[in-house]
Amino acid sequence: MRQLVIAAHGSRRESSNDELRALVALVSDELDMGFDGVEVAFLELASPSVESVLGDLFKGETSEVVVLPYFLSAGNHVVKDIPEEINKALSLWPDKKITVLPHIGAFEAMASVIAQACQH
Amino acid sequence: MRQLVIAAHGSRRESSNDELRALVALVSDELDMGFDGVEVAFLELASPSVESVLGDLFKGETSEVVVLPYFLSAGNHVVKDIPEEINKALSLWPDKKITVLPHIGAFEAMASVIAQACQH
Hints:
Two copies of one chain form a homodimer. Chain A has helices spanning about 15-30, 50-60, 75-90, 110-120, and strands at about 1-10, 35-40, 65-70, 95-100. With about 120 residues, chain A is of the alpha/beta class.
């Protein structure tokens, strides 16, 4: 089984974490074949952590995880913290596969969201 | 004249600021009628600042600015810092109009970007 994990910063404001969870529920409706599910994981300030989400998935039937860093720019969280979490998980689960996508801000489709937002 | 200003955090990594500038060049191609141009402004760590972008526009022929907070969640920058910058500008330019859009992470179109990113 193949799962998508959206790795976000996490906020002290629970309303921000909930906003992301609601968005991910929409993603789940739009996901094409190829994924059995989608989870949110937070780097800090909110739960569940990346470590616990990957652990729970790999303890189950998941053999492969695709991680999408939900960050607008490639700061330390993207360049350093997410790869560290993934290396930690792979050392615990060496027979599993983890693929990391570019951070969300790197996708040109963001330009369309901005343009649509302005017609709001 | 009506301008769009994309208000972003700003990064110590100039490559991240450049990534946003490149994205905004794409936005400019996609913008419908109703806008005469689009500018990027940074809250911190990068130039130009929100204050200087708004000042330059209002010194010119711009009568109205639409500000899009380029943040995934509604933290202090969105809730406090951007409104403060705008109030400061409106006190200097009381005959101008500034509209603030919701932060980019609040738009449901983000779900499509996530779904598309996963088919990457």
